[in-house]
Amino acid sequence: MGENNRAESADQKNNRHILLRTAFIAGAVLINFVLPRTAAALGLPLYLDNVGTLLAAVLGGYLPGILVGYLNNIINMQGNPGNAYYVVLSTIIAASGTFLAGKGYFDRFTKALLTIPVFAFIGGVLGSILTYLMYGFGMGEGISSPFARTLLEKGMLNVFWAQMVSDVIIDLIDKGITVILAFLIIRLIPDSIKPELWLTGWRQAPLSAEALKAAKKSDTRSFSLRGKIITIISVIMFCVAVVTTVISYILYTNFAMRQYRSGCTSAAMLAANLVDGNRLDDYAALGREDDEYRYIENKLDSIRLSNPDIEYIYVYRFLPDGIEVLFDLNTADVAAQKPGDIIPYEDYLLPYKDTLLAGRELDPIIDNTKYGRLLTVFEPVKDINGRTVCYAAADIKVEDIRLSNLNYMTKVFSLFMGFYIFILSLCIWLVDYQLIYPITAMTVSARKFAYDSEEAREISVDRLQHLDITTGDEIEKLYESLSKTISETVGYLEDVEEKSEEISRMQNGLIYVLADMVESRDKNTGDHVRKTAAYVRLIMEKMKEKGIYADQIDDAFIDDVANSAPLHDVGKIMVSDMILNKPGKLTDEEFAMMKNHTTAGSQVISSAMSLVADSGYLEEAKNLATYHHERWDGKGYPSGKAGEDIPLSARVMAVADVFDALVSRRSYKEPFPFEKAMDIIREGAGTQFDPQIAMLFVESEDEVRKITNAHEAALISFERLKSGEE
Predict the structure, then answer these.
(1) What does pTM read for this prediction?
(2) pLDDT class for 721, splitting at 50, 70, 90?
(3) CATH number belonging to the domain at 522-723, selected among 3.40.50.150, 1.10.3210.10, 2.40.340.10, 3.40.50.880
(4) Which residues of 551-581 are buried (b: 16+ CB within 10 A; e: fewer)?
(5) CA-CA-CA-CA dihedral for 172, 177, 179, 181, to nearest 10
(6) Where are the domains of the chain?
């Protein structure tokens, strides 16, 4: 029942988030719809069409911002179709807004103001270039056009720079107001709601900010999965764009050429229908003095004005020795020829001279003339007998056709880039939440997995299981398999660890049994092996704590030395009982035999090492057994090693062994007082003992005393039990 309630609560929360984000995006679109119309109604020369876009980008992220920017132009094209072509600018502004917000530029008002030049550059500079290309290297009809025309008319700037200056100035003001309005609205939204507006699509437990950064950065050998997917999407869309653009260009060019030819042909036919083929001599002789001539000339001018693409319109009579001008119109660049003038054939007409003289029909011509590259259509004018007597012609500049193609392709490019940015952001969003973030979560969890303790393993398994990846695809199956495998591995490791601990306890127990067997032969040593092992562990832990010989001492080294310390006198098994238990002072010969217990111990442990594959701890046992009677000044035995040539473990044991011998009762002496024993250790620093180890031992007097007292109390209790007193 509780699980069902929790599930319902999660569903309700998810539904609330969906409704809130949908309302937020709709509100941003509404702001973009209302503000431009309000500015227009008030007669303000401002766009204000990106306030909602910036708001969605800052609070919602890349996808909401780009979506609102895209919808902004699509919706506003209902009032002005040209708005659709600026969709690329809106999507770039949205992407820039999210990026700058991520860098903290909208945290404070002063920092937000620094973003104004960025948005003004996008809207003003890039927008001006786009306008210039879309409208035939001329002026658009937008808000900045009147100002641009004023600059142009004053002769201060050319068309391009007039448009550019106008757009930048107006966009600086517009984007300044846009940023201020967006910042104020952001501040009015409660901080508790803002995190819920950011569009996410988690199919798992949300990642931390650190993990999100890791997901977006590539620490792979060559190229991240995220980068590969984005590259694949980009390449596919680029290929589609190229193919679509080429096809569109070919189709549009063919269509445009047909339209231009059709328009040019229509103009030539209309002109031909106006001319009376029986009055050509009158037209040439009288010109504008003739009423009919003036009427025809006005009609020709009307035909040219009705079709802005027509550059020149004229009527020529082709003669063997030249071309007679019958009708010609003035243009802004070229003065008209006078009626009756004879002009020479241009080179481009020479191949068609015979056809023209014969009065036959001629296909449209595209060629270079002294007026530029022209598309020309010649339409025959016939007399009352049906004989071709002249030609009416219309010209269109091919450069105008090229500009028209460029305008069209610029519009296609702008529309496609806006759509591309939107689709790319959508794909990245889906890839991140459906693929990259779940994989990153598993990767981070696996990297942080700790095996060094039971608690660490439990935390690591719990972290992995709480990822709760629910993509419903192969990623989810991979997660389930990974969770199961790691859980089973951890269980196996716990079994192995338990067995290892059991083996370790058995090993240590056997070491103490062996040491006790040796010790039981020496009536003088008492609880010597256990006390020296305790002193050794204490010394090494203090050394690790203070960083003394840090290059050698770690937890593994401490365990190896402390666990093998009881074997330091194992060589005594080869020494006679008479020598071991002699109550008085040993003779020189006896002492020489006693000293052999170091080399004998080395031989015993070497034999054991040959039977054990992993003999790390036995290496230290051998060092302890062989060299624990060496002295720092080189006067010890069996090898006379000095200083740091003596293994570190043996130097530690030397202090522990001598101290315990001093404070312990022997058959040949009484125990030294604790303080006196400490003084002897202090005095031996730098001669008998490693000075750092000896002084560290002396400084640890309190801990040493606790070990000494504890073992003495245990020994007294044991003796009482043995004698029957307890």
Answers:
(1) 0.56
(2) very low
(3) 1.10.3210.10
(4) eebeeebbbbbbbbbbbbbbbbbebeeebbe
(5) -170
(6) 17-199, 252-406, 522-723
